[in-house]
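Lab notebook, bench 4. Still working through the backlog of constructs that have no structural model yet. Next entry is a single chain of 341 residues. Request: give me the structure tokens for it.
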Amino acid sequence: MKNIRCRLVLYCAGFGVVGALQAQTTWTLNPLTAFGTRGDGSIQPGDSIGISPLTGNNILISAPGVTNAWQPGETVQDQRPMGSTNGFNMRGLTYDSVSGNLIFVDTHLGSGGSVGGAGALSPYAAIYILNATSGQIIGALNTNGIFGGAYTHVVPGVSDDGVVYVCNQTTASATVGFKIYRWLTADPNNPNFNVPPVVAFSNVLGAAIGTSGERPGLTMDVRGSGTNTQIICGTAAANGTGTNIFIFTTADGTNFSAHRIGFPGVIASATFNDGIAFGPGNTFWAKQVGKPFLYLTYDAVALANGGTTPNGNTNDRTVTQTPSPAQLFRALPHHQSTIRC
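Model written out:
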């Protein structure tokens, strides 16, 4: 998972492998030049991603300093000194290997959910499906029934069987419910594409599982399929410590349970705010801006046995140095990558 602050740049690239001396391997990123209209594989603030199938409006990537991204008839809200919005919280992007499409979340709620208000969807919000080659809109998920949280829908993830998950974000999870929604497919040609989401998880994350109400929903990753689907979410320190992560598991493939994992004696301050992704087995990657890139492990046995007690689960190893490219690429096949901003 990659974090981009303030300015969103959608960027697609292919991987090239170059052999070097002493059997060392160099990995090279080559831009997918067909992605976007700039010829460099990027879609940048102010660029169009096409027409919304929900409103018929041209959708431009917004960010602080971009003053042309307002939609026709849209009330100016959460305006910044330079005349722009804060970016509408266009803050989630993931790739679905089953449909071959991208899923892009435009929360469109402004600072603190100011545009929709009181947990309601903004009328300009959407979860767009993008063509992964061109970056243009080819559809939008049905958002009927989405409600609640400081931000109603933020980060997407896709399981190995193509099921789409999107979570809300709450700044006080001990009192305001954290939600995860579930769609059957990201393929506009699938007969189930227009089916509204079901709620896969909805509950507070508080004292019952040993947390004081952290801010989940800034980062998320999904792996597995069916009853083996797992969802991992990082946290921030708003109204809590930001030192816990949550893993959600399911017994029926649809309804999920939360498990808190803490790292006492190892993680003492907020660390999981800006990026999280599953690694192999019981490992995961995490990143906070200004802090080391972490590779951690958790107690898989405790997780399997519940992991919902106030003590949570503790880790047995943490690596705080930046991993080598080989380590990083070994982890990549095990998860869907998400870009959040």
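Notes after review: The longest strand covers residues 215-223. The chain has one domain: 88-340. Flag for follow-up if needed.
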